[in-house]
Amino acid sequence: MALIPSFGNRRSSAFDPFSLDVWDPVESVFTPSWPVSARETAQFATARIDWRETPEAHVFKADLPGLRKEEVKVEVEEGRILQISGERTREQEEKTDTWHRAERSSGRFLRRFRLPENAKLDKVKASMENGVLTVTVPKEEVKKPDVKAIEISG
C-alpha cells in the first residue's frame, strides 16, 4: 500500500512535504525559449526521478536518455531546494528528409525537491552514466540525546 496516492500511472506529490513539482507561470512568461506546444511540454517536462533514502544519504536517480551531462543542471537553492533541470533539443529537419514518425520528446524539464533538515547541502555530488543522473546528498549524523539515569530515592 502506498503512503502517497497514485493517480493513473503517475505518483502524485500532493501529500509529499518534500516534493516541489512546481510549474511557475510567472517564470514561463519571462522564459520564451521554453517549449511552445503543450504536447512538447507534456512529453519531456516531467522527467522521471526516483528518491530513496539510505542510512547515509538521500539518492536521486533520473532517467535522462540521450542527454549529455553538459545539458543537465543540478543546483541547491535557498530554502534547501534541490533543482534538477535540462533540455533536449529537437533535431534539425532537412528539407530533403521525409519523416515517417517523430516520437522522441524534446524540450526543457525542471524538477524541484525540498531536502530534509538532515541533508548536508555542501557535500552534494552528481554523476551521469548511460543516461542516468545520480545525485547523492549525504545526511548528517543524527545526534542521540544524552540519557542520564536518575536515582529514585525513598
- Which strand order do you get reading across the main beta sheet? 3-4-9-8
Strand-residue proportion? 25-35%
Helical residue percent band: under 10%
User: Tally the helices: what do you get?
Assistant: 2
The largest pleated sheet is described as:
4 strands, antiparallel
Q: What's the N-to-C terminus distance? A: 51 Å
**Average pLDDT for all residues:** 77
Low-confidence stretches: 1-19, 22-37, 39-44
Tally of extended strands? 9
Structural class per helix/strand content? mainly beta
Oligomer: single chain
How large is the radius of gyration? 21 Å
Shape: rod-shaped
Helix and strand succession?
Answer: EEHHEEEEEEE
Q: Could you explain the architecture of this structure?
A:
- A hairpin with a 3-residue loop joins strand 5 and strand 6 (81-88).
- This protein is rod-shaped.
- By secondary structure, the protein is mainly β.
- The protein has a 4-stranded antiparallel sheet with strand order 3-4-9-8, with no helix packed on it.
- The protein has helices spanning 25-29, 38-44, and strands spanning 6-7, 10-11, 49-53, 57-63, 72-77, 81-88, 107-114, 125-129, 132-138.
- Residues 1-19, 22-37 and 39-44 have low confidence and may be disordered.
- Helices cover 8% and strands 32% of the residues.
